[in-house]
Specification:
Blueprint lengths: L1 H7 L2 H17 L1 E7 L14 H18 L3 E5 L10 H17 L4 E5 L6 H5 L2 H5 L3 E4 L15 E5 L5 E7 L20 H16 L6 E6 L1 E2 L16 E2 L10 E5 L5 E2 L7 E3 L15 E8 L5 E6 L6 E9 L1 H10 L6 E9 L7 H8 L5 E10 L4 H7 L2 H6 L2 H13 L5 H20 L1
Parallel strand pairs: 1-2, 2-3, 3-4, 6-7, 7-10, 8-9, 10-12, 15-16, 16-17
Antiparallel strand pairs: 1-13, 5-6, 11-12, 13-14
Helix pairs in contact: 3-4, 8-9, 12-13
């Protein structure tokens, strides 16, 4: 025994044992890059944003090259429109290939969001498999069974050592989740589906490796600051419905980056890399998550720089003349999308938008719209202070805003204003053609 003990503790032997232990430890550590809600193809008040979106993809490529994660998960809303243009699809394809080249051994998992067309996103999934990209657009089912294996992705390193598992679930409305058994009530099918996938992974995950669950939905209690709830609707899900057995829940859909309260840093919205509206006035980033089987995930954020930021001028509302002066004084060479924050006592003059548009001519910034902030008043006040002549001088949008305020008791939101402006423009174009 003494001779054996002496042999055990030779320097080379100790070094070998240390290497074995280190390898075992590294197998239990998985590093992912979590991103979602790219909204490629999104335009802002008819301004093309492809330059910003390409800049994001270039930054993402650099981040991947520096971080060298085991996997990158994209939790839905790759595109803003279900029928993206050819140019937008090419931007996505070129960007993903560059990201793959930056870290060829990295597993990439992409799921469909409510803005995406699940079938179009999946149409070339077989081709993407050759580049380590797994695309999951929908739930595959037959009359007999649901293909759960489609949603389970193994993550391996360059030496093909298994690092962990990713469960990829695309956006599905709660009522459309498949029925896995006849006993589960319809309202519980979503929770049953998530748990079934986690149970499947639990059967094969004999080494206790990290498990990442991807989902594109709204968790109850999440911060929805700046989020547009008019597209696809919002149906809130309690965190308990996501099941048990994951180490990290990589969420998409809500644009404000945040850890879900009460999840112990095990569930997170990474948020949008670029703002989709002016109300998303917070830092935008991607998340780097490192998981060890016995610890809570370690999360870092890497901020994405937008070459053309969205700016509200000024932060607090002022009368139009003060706002237009600030716009005129805005630096000529500084790129930005700008909305004016205007305090309105009675109504805006009909030429306000024209004056604002003229104020940015020759500048590198782009004027978008006026955010109205009216002093609260009763409908009697509105009728008393606005004459027929004044109404005749107002734009259709201003009349609609006043009517909405009187009928609903609150300001018309940005999306409705944009829709109204679009309708007015189309009517004018139609009349001009006549």
């Amino acid at each position: 025994f003494p001779a054996f003990r002496k042999e055990i503790f030779k320097e080379d032997c100790v070094s070998s044992i240390f290497c074995v232990l280190l390898k075992a430890l590294n197998r239990r550590i998985m590093k992912i890059l979590h991103t979602s809600d790219w909204h490629l193809g999104h335009t802002l008040y008819n301004y093309d944003r492809s330059h910003e979106q390409q800049a994001f993809l270039q930054q993402l490529t650099r981040i991947v090259a520096e971080e060298m994660p085991d996997a990158m998960v994209v939790s839905g809303d790759i595109y803003h429109y279900s029928t993206p243009s050819a140019a937008t699809q090419k931007m996505y394809t070129d960007g993903m290939l560059e990201i793959h080249r930056a870290c060829p051994g990295m597993t990439i998992v992409v799921t469909a969001g409510n803005h995406d067309s699940s079938s179009k996103l999946e149409i070339d999934s077989s081709l993407w498999n050759h580049f380590g990209v797994k695309v999951v657009g929908n739930i595959e089912r037959t009359r007999e069974e649901v293909n759960l294996e489609k949603h389970i992705v193994e993550v391996r390193d360059k030496e093909t050592i298994l690092k962990g598992y990713i469960i990829a679930v695309p956006h599905v409305y709660p009522q459309n989740f498949p029925m896995l058994d006849t006993e589960t009530p319809r309202e519980e099918r979503q929770a049953r589906f998530f748990q079934a996938l986690l149970d499947e992974v639990g059967k094969i995950n004999t080494e206790g490796l990290p498990v990442v669950l991807m989902a594109h939905l709204s968790i109850e209690g999440s911060d929805r600051t700046g989020h547009d709830e008019t597209v696809g609707g919002i149906e809130y899900v309690p965190i308990s419905s996501m099941g048990e057995g994951y180490d990290y829940l990589a969420l998409g859909h809500i644009h404000c980056p945040q850890n879900i309260k009460g999840s112990g840093r095990h569930a997170r919205y990474c948020g949008t890399p670029l703002p989709v509206s002016f109300d998303e006035a917070y830092p935008h980033s991607v998340s780097i998550v490192e998981m060890k089987g016995w610890e809570e995930p370690q999360i870092r954020t890497i901020e994405i720089e937008n070459p053309t930021p969205l700016i509200t001028l000024p932060k607090e509302p002022v009368v139009f003349e003060e706002a237009i002066k600030l716009l005129e004084e805005y630096p000529d060479d500084k790129p930005a999308y700008i909305r004016l924050n205007v305090l309105i006592k009675d109504y805006l003059a009909p030429d306000c938008n024209e004056r604002a548009s003229n104020a940015v001519k020759g500048k590198n910034c782009k004027y978008c719209y006026i955010k109205p902030n009216r002093e609260k008043r009763t409908s009697d006040d509105v009728a008393r202070h606005i004459s027929i002549q004044e109404i005749q001088e107002m734009s259709p949008l201003e009349i609609a805003r006043l009517y909405y305020q009187e009928a609903e008791g609150e300001e018309m939101d940005e999306e409705l204003c944009e829709l109204m402006s679009s309708v007015v423009q189309k009517v004018r174009e139609k009349n001009n053609l006549r």
